[in-house]
Amino acid sequence: MADVSVVVVTYNALPWLERALESVRGNETIVVDHGSTDGTVELVRERFPDARLIEQENRGLGGGSNAGMRVAAGDWYLLLNSDAWALEGALERLVAFAEAHAEAAVVGPRLLNPDGSLQRSVRGFPTLWRLATEYFFLRKLAPRSRILNGFYGAGFDHDEVREAEFVMGAVMLVRREAAATVGLFDEDFFMFSEETDWCYRFRQAGWKVLFTPEAEFVHVGGATTRQNWGPMFREQLRGHVRFLAKHRGPGRAERARRLLLASLRLRGVVFRGERGRTYKEAARWLAHTSTNELLETRG
Length: 299
Description:
Blueprint: E1 4-10, H1 17-23, E2 28-33, H2 40-47, E3 52-55, H3 60-71, E4 76-80, E5 84-86, H4 90-99, E6 104-112, E7 118-119, E8 122-123, H5 128-135, E9 162-163, E10 166-167, E11 171-175, H6 176-182, H7 194-204, E12 208-219, H8 229-248, H9 250-270, H10 273-287, H11 291-296
Parallel strand pairs: 1-2, 1-4, 2-3, 6-12
Antiparallel strand pairs: 4-11, 5-12, 6-7, 6-11, 8-10, 9-12
């Protein structure tokens, strides 16, 4: 198998981290910790002494991944969330597939939920229409419709090899050569949309993003972001706006901010409890933060 460097970014990553690291043992592994206080660092030192541990201030998922990739020696980077792990033989199959497809910069595996069900991991690049279908729940009117479900890769068959717009960053195998041509993650994306931007840049440079069901990983999902969901949800919104500003211009970004604001005001009325409060707080934030201010800050 080609040399693979596994990069795992952690922040209070227990209880799933041990399983994640165990599943890729035997490969160069780099753990970038962003200030964990739950015993994550101690677990890595005690249970995985061969892993390289980098402790730094929280620079976001992209910034942490970049720190790991900059010291990695492999021909391939496996970017692995701390709450995801490879099933038996999955990494070997993923790399073999990637090696057989020289046009691929990124290969995403088939993701499963902990109960074994499919976790849909292929997405479509944000557009104003796609954001509207998601944030106004239009996609629920016709769940199988491509026109209303483009944001979530509607119609994408997760049982066959296919080209994707982008794949979820929970598990990504990235060709070192391709990364050298477009650069690493844009660290202005603190959390969310960093993989969206990266895959977009790869495709613009002529590389492909591929999905294969031949390799399967389990992904819990939200193990870190749920710890502080309000601010993380705002970062998700900021990521959409930043992506459109970068690739479609400031006018499109401003329209996205207004669209998201309207949708969150509606959600704040419809939903009760903590969920409704999260939407209302996010709406107030968007209402009192200009697009320029959104883009000037991160994290």
